[in-house]
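Help wanted!
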Amino acid sequence: MGVRQVGKVEYGNERSVVPNTINGAGLARDEGPPAVELCDIHKSYGTVEVLHGVSLTVRQGEHVVIFGPSGSGKSTMLRVMNLLEVPQSGSVKAFGVEYGSARGNGVVRGTALQLRRTVGMVFQQFNLFPHLTAIENIVLPLRKVKGLSRKDAEARAADGLQSVGLRKWAAHYPGELSGGQQQRVAIARALSLDPRVMLFDEPTSALDAEVVGEVLIVMRKLAEMGMTMVIVTHELNFAREVGDLNVFIEHGVIVESGNRNIYDSPVSERTHRFLRAVL
Amino acid sequence: MIGSTIYNWSLIWTYHGQLLDGLFVALKVALTALVLSVAAGLVLAVWRMARPPISWPAALYINIFRGIPALVSAIWVYFGWSLVLGIKLTVYQAAVVALVLLYSAYLSEIFRAALLAIARGQREAGLALGIRRRQVFVRVIIPQAARIALPNIGSMLIGMVKDTSTFMVIGLVEVVYVSENIVNATFEPFVIYTAAAALYIFVAFIIDFVFRVLESAVGGRASGRMAMLLTARRRRRLERLAQGGSDVAEIYEPLGAV
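Answered by r_m:
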């Protein structure tokens, strides 16, 4: 009680019973109300299970970093949080509403659409709509999701572009922008819908080294403003800076999680090995 | 006598009204059929992309109707349906239906290829933003697929216009039907059919031009004078919105932030 649960919870399989360590001062972290809760998530593609019953609680205002080797299931875990991947079993909760397969008495259930209107996402490949200009990329969801008029949506989208320093580029198509600019437009697009949580799926992995910084600046500002963020990243220096809860995942299992000390003094031998290889 | 024949080219002018009437009928049939075929082709494409047992009827339809010549289709619809099914269509209706049966099958394969060419991330991005599935399809996937499919749709339309020429057998008063009548009165087949061929070629050039303009006007930055003209208003509005922007990122307080 009072200790936040990370990794395996009461029911589940043997494989995920791992060093489920709360690292050091992690115990003393502020405990806000939960934003997104994954509980015992199992996800398979065909016959291959890639998530073996992971559980994670993201609290409001918290910045959670998920890291681990490629193929470890970290992106899949993130994508479960807005049901782009539908898990075979387990509970996905956001702000007290159940979206997963779990059933219970008196549980309020929501649809994937409602979940996605609460949780914004930024992709590794930006995924801007190439047939629309930067500003139209933001206007479209504002109109379709928020139901704004074209005039209101355009004013709002222009502000959104200004917020990432790209208003001048409003009438340009994604193909005419640099990778860093595209990712900033993508962030502005997700933010314009007032999400309560932002998911970042390796937001800088597809970028040239010299533009990684401009995207991280925007993300850092967002973090400073108290946005709840879940970030899958290889930028461990950035993670060390913003990560309130840092989760190391390998082979579809959460190996270790904790505060920033995890990067300097990991408890698990596997975390240690991974960090030594990448840092 | 070969070599000394004098062709009476002025006949083309004499009969230009009839020839153009025939062309008008051909275009009316082809364009009506195009609109219906695009709609039906899109449904067939999506249907065929469904899971196997569900997709089978679509696959069967496509493979049957891609294999039937327009002439056979027209006779089958006009005479066959009325004899066997008691469905009596006018010549015009039968011509349109005959074309739609064939070209919806062709177009569905063009659409399927275009839809498959759109990266998965596009759909995911739309869904992740909380846009409804149908809207993602209509606003995100279709416009991008359209740009890929447009050149092929243009080719199909040219094919449809040409295929109307076989519909003289069911009595459609199109270019060849008209030409045949004029030849019977003038005994100048070479002149009249040259004129008919010229009309088809002319139409092909026009269709090519229109589809090129459409292609460069949708799905990205417009290029070419006509496409620029078509998109000028939208471009000006967007450029106005870009004014007054600075390069400084000023992240505002998101409403959802705690």
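OP: Thanks! One thing I noticed: The longest helix of chain B spans residues 16-48.
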